[in-house]
Amino acid sequence: MTDYHVPVLLEESLQALEIKPDGVYVDLTFGGGGHSRALLERLGPKGCLYAFDQDADARANVPEDPRFHFVESNFRFLRGALRLRGVQQVDGILADLGVSSHHFDTQERGFSFRFDGPLDMRMNQRAEFTAEQLVNSYTNDQLIRVFRDWGELDTPYKIANCIERARGEVPISTISALVEAVAPCTPKRDETKFLSKLFQALRIEVNHEMEALKMALEQSLKVLCPGGRLVVISYHSLEDRLVKNFMRSGNFEGKTEKDFYGRVQAPFEMITRKAIVPSEGELERNPRSRSARLRVAEKSEA
Q1: Which end of the chain is more exposed for a tag (fewer CB within 10 A), N or C?
Q2: Segment holding 71, helix H or strand E
């Protein structure tokens, strides 16, 4: 399905992996399979690729290739899923954390305010908790936390109050009803930016995205072999901050430890001092790549 999702920073991410023809690799975010297919082209007959995706829709994109193994699971279960398949260590891990075009463009999935539809936002449609349940059941304080922490919105308390007033009259069950509910606190000049952050916050909470990312990053340390590469493409500051801190220090606060001689003790060596961003050509071909940031780290030999 070529229209499912256009792979972002494709060549840059594959170069960063330094692919060995007979290596074992993981694509944590299979989606439309763009990165996976390109990676398979660089693998030899003895190479192997494991690709994770919790969305059943992604299975339609699975290539027929004996070197490819699809894992229908959230990448938070990275280590356990690999061990079940007899894999202890891998040579490289790739993660493109962006929401696929398929999700944004499928009206009934509820990820975009461009359409009306149900307030769903579940990446895994087998999960029970939806954005509709969130906006109708969370307390005022819980709503404030979501919009402050995951949307980094300036007036989370005003948004929470708007939602509380609206749902007091009738439950908020559709995208249009939510947009209408928050209209009194939506800035007219920055309406698109405001709603993008609002929907981002709800999506992150519904899918526990930051918790899953932390778990996957921590497990990457155990799964990668010495010299193995971790390549992550993030799309907003919350993700990028976690990735950068973890790659630099092995923790999410970015606190580095030093040995007796004052040398920094870090489980990774940063390959990218600054994040790699899309070229002008890629931005023209795929405007949705504009916020992408690619970071690369190599697991230390010691």
Answers
A1: C
A2: strand 68-71
The encoded tokens of residue 101 equal 């075009």
Q: Is 26 helix (H, G, I), strand (E, B) or coil?
A: strand
The reply to whether 3 falls in a domain is: no
The contacts of residue 11 (CB under 8 Å, 6+ apart) are: none
Q: Which residues are 258's β-sheet partners?
A: 264
The SS3 assignment for 233 reads strand
One-letter amino acid for residue 260 of the chain: F
Q: Assess whether 110 and 80 both reside in one domain.
A: no
Q: What is the spatial distance between Cα 220 and Cα 3, in angstroms, rounded to a whole number?
A: 30
pLDDT in tens, 35-93: 999 999 999 999 999 999 998 888 999 999 999 999 999 999 999 999 999 999 999 99
Count of Cβ atoms closer than 10 Å to residue 116 Cβ: 12
Determine the Cα–Cα distance for residues 210 and 260; give it in Å rounded to an integer.
34
CB neighbourhood size of 157 (10 A): 15
- Number of domains the chain is built from: 2
> Residue 247 corresponds to which amino acid?
M
Domain boundary among 175, 190, 207: 207
Token pair, residue 119, equals 């307030």
